[in-house]
Write a structure and sequence with these properties.
The complex is a heterotrimer of chains A (95), B (252) and C (328). A three-stranded antiparallel β-sheet of chain A has the order 2-1-3. With 95 residues, chain A is of the alpha+beta class. Chain A is 18% helix and 22% strand. Chain B has 252 residues and is mostly helical. Chain B has one domain: Ferritin, core subunit, four-helix bundle (Ferritin, Up-down Bundle). In chain B, helix 1 packs across helix 8 and helix 5 runs antiparallel to helix 6. Chain C is an all-alpha fold. Helices cover 65% and strands 2% of the residues of chain C. Classes of the chains: A alpha+beta (95), B mainly alpha (252), C mainly alpha (328). Chains in contact: A-B, A-C, B-C. At the B-C interface, helix 1, helix 2, helix 3, helix 6 and helix 7 of B face helix 2, helix 3, helix 6, helix 11 and helix 12 of C.
Chain lengths: 95, 252, 328
């Protein structure tokens, strides 16, 4: 008898309407439908959610930390994208 | 039997079904085939005990004799319990317990649905709460029934045997007695004949999807609703009631 | 994020890449209280330490379901039954979260479970003691969960992100576990003489094993120093043990029951309780497999796993058939 492990799924929960789904954890399940059941039974026992997404972990495409510098540092010097960059003259309102 | 007596008897039947099934399910804690199923099994048992508690509390109020939910659960003898024989059947293997729960809940969901429209407001409220839980149970349990039926040759044979073995306990659900009739006539409660047809339709669909065979019409066991239980039921009750019985009057 | 998909090592982590520069840069991140995430570069020993610790923690949750599960069918009221069931279920959930956290380090749950079932992996020895009366359920919640909380709260700040996040969830959920145990003890101690005797007996049997849960004395703890440097561990075994004793003795006084330790006294100068010598031989015996329930616990786990094989296989076979249908 082969005892293969059920695949791993990542679970994302929307805690209430108006908020984004957020990663909650993972479950093992034989297929998508059961993954949703398992996610419900594992991660929403204390009214944590109003919506669940599950996705097979091996379907997630992720950036590589080795490329972090190339990926994320170029954004750091674009300070003019942030409102705090701008000085507002005294007496000007609603800006 | 007065009208109130019939309501109390009916509420206790509902409560006993929920409690005894939960008691069987918690025997399975730490014995499930996968960790995720431990979570599901416990969720379902918690739902059932919650239902039993609401129902026992209501029965206690109606009775007005100062009994509590725990008096009903722990201080009645086996022959005072009115749960279906199907509910109390021993757990067997995973397929047996799935089939037991499925056959019952496929009935229970229609029973509760009818009760949400009954004239007793408390029963209707409890049913409205419970039916949400039971709909989810049915979703999960039928997922399993289909996977076991249409899984491997071994699982197919095992779960077909479970179905054949437990089928004889399904007839009792649909046999009306004076309590069922009183609830139907006085409170616009469930019509068991109508539910039998709905149950059969649902069960046939799931069994077909599971590539299983519907068992043939056969002799049906009965007695649970009248307090005549199986031999193993005595052990279930003895274990459940041990502390309350051994230390009379103690509070825990 | 807990995912196997993210557990491949980063590109520059090849065999032999553990240069002093790498190790120094890693330690700098730790010292700066940066969290380490699954795909980040990490020393092999850090990874191994975490796999060992997190999987042992997960196994403890799973085996820990058994002693309490032992009283589920006999819980003395419906209220106690639902509370205990919810608690035992939480333990299954916590095992699951922790296995997931360990899986991010590149080890499968199947492998960890196999190590548990074969007896190769360890779990907390406390769960090799039997639950003989209902009072043991109170004592476990009060003492064992109390000791566990002392251990677990600092782990919420552990340097490894997935473990820290799992522990945040665990601690949040466990906050009721100790209270429900103490609540059982309160009911027993305010109950009949028989009930109070039951509570005292449970305290007698669970007190010393609870103190052992913090592990060997600091002088004899072989993994401690490195784990502290890596911020996997934040306090030493003896510090946490002392904290637990200080917190728990007044609670026993409140209950009106007595710790089974003649040497236990409050030391005014230090502000701490000093307590007797732990029987380390017993500790070593139980760790080595010779506690009252070691065999029984593993046998039960093995039976559940073996009995479930055809079920797991059926679900897998069904999924494969469905996938084949969808592809056709």
């Amino acid at each position: 008898m082969t005892d293969k492990e059920w695949p791993l799924y990542e679970v994302f929960i929307r805690s209430r309407a108006g908020l984004s789904h957020r990663h909650a954890g993972s479950v093992h399940a034989p297929d998508d439908q059961m993954a949703l059941d398992h996610a419900r039974d594992t991660y929403t026992r204390r009214t944590e959610g109003v919506s669940i997404w599950v996705v097979r972990s091996d379907r997630i495409v992720a950036s590589d930390p080795a490329e972090n510098a190339a990926f994320f540092e170029p954004a750091k010097d674009k300070i003019y994208r942030h409102p705090t960059f701008y000085e507002i003259p005294d007496g000007v309102e609603n800006l | 039997m007065s009208r109130d007596e019939a309501v109390i008897a009916y509420v206790l039947r509902l409560a006993d079904n929920a409690l005894i099934l939960a008691q069987r399910m918690i025997e399975l804690v730490t014995a499930k085939p996968e960790l995720e199923e431990e979570l599901a099994n416990a969720n379902f048992a918690l739902d059932f005990i919650g239902q039993a508690r609401m129902l026992y509390s209501y029965a206690a109020e109606l009775e007005g004799a100062g009994r509590s939910e725990d008096d009903f659960a722990f201080m009645r003898d086996g022959n005072e319990f009115r749960n279906l024989l199907l509910i109390e059947q021993p757990n067997g293997h995973f397929g047996d317990s799935i089939v037991r729960q499925y056959l019952f809940e496929a009935f229970y969901v229609h029973q509760l649905d009818a009760l949400t429209r009954c004239k007793d407001q408390r029963i209707a409220e409890i049913a409205a709460r419970a039916i949400k839980e039971v709909r989810y149970h049915l979703r999960h349990i039928s997922h399993w029934l289909i996977r076991l039926g249409d899984g491997t040759d071994e699982s197919h044979q095992r779960v077909q045997a479970s179905l054949d073995e437990l089928w004889r306990f399904t007839g009792e659900m649909f046999v009306s007695d004076e309590v069922d009739v009183a609830i139907r006539d006085n409170l616009a409660g469930p019509d068991l004949e109508a539910i039998a047809a709905l149950w059969k339709r649902d069960v046939e669909d799931v069994i077909a999807e599971a590539t299983l065979q519907l068992p043939e019409d056969q002799w049906m066991a009965r007695g649970g609703k009248q307090g005549q239980h199986s031999e193993h039921f005595g052990f279930l009750i003895a274990e459940m009631q041990f502390l309350q019985r051994s230390y009379a009057g103690a509070s825990w | 994020m807990y995912t196997q998909g993210l557990d491949q090592a980063g590109k520059d982590q090849e065999a032999g890449a553990e240069t002093p520069e790498h190790l120094e840069a890693f330690q700098k991140r730790i010292d700066a209280e940066e969290k380490i995430e699954a795909k980040d570069w990490m020393p092999e020993a850090y990874r191994r330490t975490l796999v060992r610790q997190i999987s042992q923690h997960a196994h403890s949750e799973i085996i820990g379901m058994q002693p309490e599960g032992n009283w589920l069918t006999r819980a003395p009221s419906l209220k106690r039954k639902v509370i205990l069931l919810a608690k035992v279920q939480d333990e299954a959930g916590h095992g699951l979260y922790l296995y997931s956290a360990a899986e991010t380090l590149g080890v499968s749950r199947g492998q960890m479970v196999a190590d548990l079932l074969s007896g190769k992996a360890k779990y907390s020895s406390i769960f090799n003691y039997p639950t003989l009366t209902w009072a043991d359920i109170g004592a476990i919640g009060w003492l064992v969960d109390g000791a566990a909380i002392m251990n677990q709260i600092p782990l919420c700040r552990c340097s490894y992100g997935p473990y820290a996040r799992a522990m945040v969830r665990v601690c949040k959920e466990e906050s009721f576990h100790q209270r429900q145990g103490f609540d059982i003890m309160v009911s027993l101690c305010r109950g009949t003489a028989e009930q109070k005797a039951m509570a005292q007996d449970a305290l007698n049997r669970w007190w010393w094993p609870s103190l052992m849960m913090f592990g060997p004395n600091d002088a004899n703890s072989k993994h401690s120093a490195q784990s502290m440097a890596w911020k996997i561990k934040r306090f030493s075994n003896d510090e946490l043990r002392q904290k637990f004793v200080d917190a728990t003795v007044p609670q026993a006084d409140f209950l009106g029951i007595t710790m089974p330790d003649d040497a236990l006294v409050f030391d005014k100068d230090s502000g701490h309780y000093s307590f007797g010598e732990i029987d380390w031989q017993e500790f070593m015996d139980v760790v080595a497999g010779n506690g009252p329930c070691n065999r029984q616990r593993l046998e039960k786990r093995n039976k559940a796993h073996n009995d479930g094989a055809w079920v797991r296989e059926a679900a897998q076979a069904y999924a494969e058939k469905q996938a084949a249908c969808a592809a056709a």
